[in-house]
Amino acid sequence: MKKILITGGAGFIGSHVVRLFVNKYPDYHIINLDKLTYAGNLANLQDIEQAENYTFVKGDICDFELVCGLFSRYKIDGVIHLAAESHVDRSIKDPFTFARTNVIGTLSLLQAARLAWEADEKGYEGKRFYHISTDEVYGALEMGNEFFTEQTKYDPHSPYSASKASSDHFVRAFHDTYGMPTIVTNCSNNYGPYQFPEKLIPLFINNIRNRRPLPVYGKGENVRDWLYVEDHARAIDLIFHKGKVAETYNIGGHNEWRNIDLIRVIVRTCDRLLGNAEGASDDLITFVKDRAGHDLRYAIDASKLQRELGWEPSLQFEEGIERTIRWYLDNEEWLNNITSGDYERYYDEMYRGR
Ligand code: NAD
Ligand code: TYD
Questions:
Q1: CATH number of 2-194+226-254+293-318
Q2: Which is catalytic among the residues 60, 77, 85, 136?
Q3: Exposed/middle/buried for 329, CB within 10 Å: 0-12, 13-18, 19+?
């Protein structure tokens, strides 16, 4: 029986990974450690919370004693580490929180894993520390045909990506220094159900249904490479089981969209699904001041993952975006609950005067 600690399992990607592992591996024990920040929500996991092979622990990855306690109590042999502060705009306002959670939190997990595994009679045998990272650590690409590969030099620009880059370096250092069996993956932008509506796609769907302005940063010319979240979760499952220790794998959908083109698809699809006349929400599109240090383009070369482990995205974007928009419109209660309280205050602060 494997005992796997998944961190950040109540967040967007983490909840899809927890669900996949709990359902697919009844003989594994999945321990989900999550602080339940504004981005963590147990409603994301309602369908599996009673499963026998699942335990939820509310706690902070920076709490070293708590994390050490989990390793000794549950005899953890695998870690899938997703807990993080993840929103670039928040990192611009409050970089310290990002350094704390993303850097110190990752170090706390690494050190707890090291102490537990080095004390184990089998040492690092059968153990694995899998760190989930982002393509944003590679910096920004110009328009054109260049892609991020696993060899691309790190060049982070935002406090978020700088903190993720730093955590990636710590993970690799634990392999090189202590021989810990680590893996790092760098994935492109995810979309799908259960994403907190501060990120582009759910924010815009929520604003369209509430007839609020859609704040397009700059001219909307920045490009992102979008991957459906369940395809990312499948890649994580494959790499956790079959990936080579000490390797890095890039994960991406080969699905680049200019923000403004994507936004027009979202507006058109929302209007159709809401039964509005075509073009009814076009007037909500509002060009606002650009994000500071806004990376122009991200695009992933995921050919190593395809070549070595046979992974490729399963969903066409047209189907994925329609499914996603439908999900948010059908789950109004989830959206209403998550956007009440703190989020409303954050929304006012973030977009007032922009
Ligand atoms: P998210 O913000 O939706 O969820 C983060 C989760 O971590 C939340 O449940 C939150 O409560 C928890 N958390 C935050 N601080 C914590 C702490 N100190 N201790 C314990 N739990 C804490 O994030 P996401 O979009 O699901 O991203 C998950 C991971 O994937 C992150 O590491 C992120 O950098 C990475 N990633 C995200 C994307 C994307 O497009 N969303 C793309 C590539 C990589
Ligand atoms: P986001 O979802 O925040 O992801 P990331 O910054 O990690 O790529 O943003 C995706 C793109 O959309 C990015 O280029 C910034 C842009 N954007 C807007 O134009 N308006 C918004 O309100 C938000 C949140 C993002």
A1: 3.40.50.720
A2: 136
A3: middle
pLDDT of residue 4: 98
Q: For residue 346, is pLDDT > 80? A: no
**CB atoms closer than 10 angstroms to residue 99:** 18
Q: Averaged over 232-260, what is the pLDDT?
A: 97
What's the pLDDT at 80? 98
Beta carbon of 132 within 6 Å of any ligand 1 atom: yes
Within 8 A by CB and 6+ apart from 237, the residues are 17, 20, 21, 24
Active site residue 194: no
Give the C-alpha separation, 186 to 115, whole Å. 26
Q: Structural domain boundaries of the chain?
A: 2-194+226-254+293-318
Model pTM above 0.85: yes
pLDDT in tens, 220-238: 999 999 999 999 999 999 9
Which of these, 40, 47, 9, 344, lies nearest to 196 by C-alpha position?
A: 40
Based on the residue annotation, tell me whether 160 is a catalytic residue of this protein. yes
